[in-house]
Design goal:
Elements lengths: L1 H16 L9 E16 L9 E3 L5 E10 L6 E3 L3 E9 L4 E6 L7 E10 L1 E7 L5 E12 L5 E6 L6 E4 L4 E3 L9 E10 L6 E9 L3 E10 L3 E3 L4 E5 L10 E3 L3 E8 L4 E12 L4 E6 L8 E3 L8 E7 L1 H7 L5 E12 L7 E4 L4 E10 L1 E4 L10 E3 L3 H10 E12 L5 E8 L14 E7 L2 H6 L12 E7 L1 H6 L5 E9 L4 E3 L7 E15 L7
Length: 519
């Protein structure tokens, strides 16, 4: 018992003599991953089915289409000047008179026409009172029902005007040019035969205009709309400075309602408004002759297809943002035997065009850069964690490249959305990495910088100053790309062609038990 009491006293003394320190909370370092980006970029997302399409082989293709047309042809004018005065009229004798019909401008010969405007003037003078009736008919003029055109004299004085509107001249589809008018004059009187009964004057001094015409037309040019944009091109991602397209085709489908062979004239003008480059190409066939367009008929139009490839590809070498059709016109031609053609006043020539430039290209040394950087959104807690507790950080990236191109990617981080990769004052961090092509990945599946499922691994260290940027509420990232010059490249838009980017910030954080009180 005494031994137990002595032991308790000793323990109590020790406790009284010792100074017990405050407990120290443990600390440790851990690595935290903060996700920044997880996004797939599919080549097929470029397809808008309007300006970027895919062809039958899934090749990504820039396309442009549209239409142009001429104004309606309008009325065909025959500028004749028939004027005959004081033709003697004799009782009992029918006068048959032939008057030449020709175009004073030498441009028009008619074989058949439906007259829109025209006037025949007649005057009968010094007519004997015994004359009861004079009939004048013109063989070549007929009413729509086929009846011959005729007028009658019933004692009128002075010049009389007779409208030719709605009359027909000649015979439809005959191909025979009407080069004269045959007049027949019948006189009814009580006088003996061969007695003079007066005289007749007539004239057609104003142009005869046809709404439907068959015959010859010389020196006639049909113009398309005034100069207009033929193809307007917007290149995706601003790649026009980084590639040179190798192939292009332009198909023009011409609908000719005019019943005449025509020759197609004009030129293509390609313009690159960024560089100021211009390139012109005349529209000629392989023999440097204008293309001949087949005629339509009164029954329907003709259709002609023109295909341009080699020369159009040359135009696309300057990566134009528009191609225009300059001075486009059609010249009517009459063939070797002065072809008889046809035209209506409403007829016109129209064309549709389809331009295709597949993404078969050669790369240049230029940089591809989106117009605007992307915004990175970190939570308040994540930014505070970086600002207060991070010892060091790395930027980790996993990128799967399924397109046939390798490239150097540059990452520019800044605290505004006005990052310019060519101006170092607009960004705060610049990092660079080399991304291999899909072919290289498939040929090197065991490379240490690859995951089993084909992601390429990158670990970019960040300095303390660079790390501080990620604690900023405004954080933006601009990617730029410089592709490897690997010869001629063909880009398809199948679902298998894409780039997937995963990015995270790896933080080395000093953990304290009470740090979570701050969150």
């Amino acid at each position: 018992m005494k031994r137990l009491v002595m032991m308790l006293i000793l323990i109590a003394g020790l406790l009284v003599s010792c100074n017990i320190s405050k407990p120290v909370l443990p600390e440790w370092d851990v690595t935290l991953n903060i996700p920044l980006i997880s996004r797939s970029f599919f080549v097929s997302d470029l397809v808008d089915s309007v300006n970027i399409i895919t062809d039958d082989n899934d090749i990504l293709t820039i396309t442009g289409s549209g239409s142009m047309e001429s104004p309606p042809f309008g009325l065909v004018r025959l500028s004749t000047n028939i004027s005959t005065n004081n033709i003697p009229l004799v009782s009992g004798i029918n006068a048959d008179i032939a008057l030449p019909l020709f175009d004073s401008a030498g441009e028009t010969d008619v074989s058949y026409g439906e007259i829109a405007t025209g006037v025949l003037k007649t005057m009968f003078a010094d007519i004997a009172p015994e004359v009861t009736l004079i009939e004048l008919s013109i063989e070549e003029f007929r009413f729509p029902n086929g009846e011959s055109f005729s007028i009658s004299y019933h004692g009128e004085s002075g010049w009389q005007e007779h409208s030719l509107a709605s009359l027909r001249i000649g015979t439809i589809d005959s191909g025979v040019i009407v080069d004269s008018l045959h007049l027949s004059v019948r006189i009814f009187s009580s006088l003996p035969d061969k007695v003079p009964v007066g005289n007749m004057s007539l004239g057609i001094t104003e142009p005869i205009c046809f709404r439907v015409f068959q015959g010859h037309l010389r020196e006639r040019t049909v113009w398309l709309d005034e100069e207009s944009t033929f193809i307007d091109i917007e290149y995706p991602f601003g790649i026009e400075d980084a590639i040179r397209l190798q192939e292009a085709s332009l198909k023009i489908y011409i609908t000719n309602e005019l019943g005449f062979h025509c020759t197609f004239h004009g030129s293509f003008l390609a313009e690159n408004s960024r560089t100021g480059e211009k390139l012109s190409m005349p529209i000629l066939d392989e023999n440097d002759n204008p293309y001949t367009i087949n005629p339509g008929t009164l029954a329907g139009p003709s259709f002609t297809e023109l295909i341009f490839e080699d020369n159009i590809s040359r135009l696309f070498q300057i990566m134009p943002d528009n191609i225009s059709l300059q001075d486009a016109n059609f010249t009517l031609c009459c063939g070797t035997e002065e072809e008889v053609g046809s035209v209506r006043e409403t007829d016109k020539i129209s064309l549709r065009y389809q331009a295709d430039a597949p993404f078969i290209f050669e790369l240049t040394e230029s940089t591809i850069a989106p117009e605007k950087p992307m915004e990175l959104n970190l939570s308040d807690e994540q930014r505070d964690l970086i600002r207060t507790y991070a010892n060091d950080a790395h930027l980790g990236l996993m990128i799967k490249n399924k397109i046939p191109l390798g490239f150097t990617a540059n990452l520019y981080f800044g605290d505004t959305d006005t990052i310019d990769h060519e101006d170092s004052s607009t960004y705060l961090i610049h990092k660079s990495l080399l991304l291999r092509s899909n072919k290289w990945v498939e040929e090197n599946p065991t490379h240490p910088d690859l995951t089993q499922d084909g992601y390429q691994l990158f670990n970019l260290s960040l300095s303390r100053a660079e790390m501080e940027l990620f604690s900023n509420a405004d954080l933006h990232l601009l990617w730029t790309f410089n592709f490897d010059n690997s010869g001629i490249i063909t880009v398809t838009a199948s679902p298998a062609d894409y780039i997937h980017i995963k990015s995270m910030m790896r933080l080395n954080v000093r953990i304290k038990e009470d740090m979570w009180d701050d969150f």
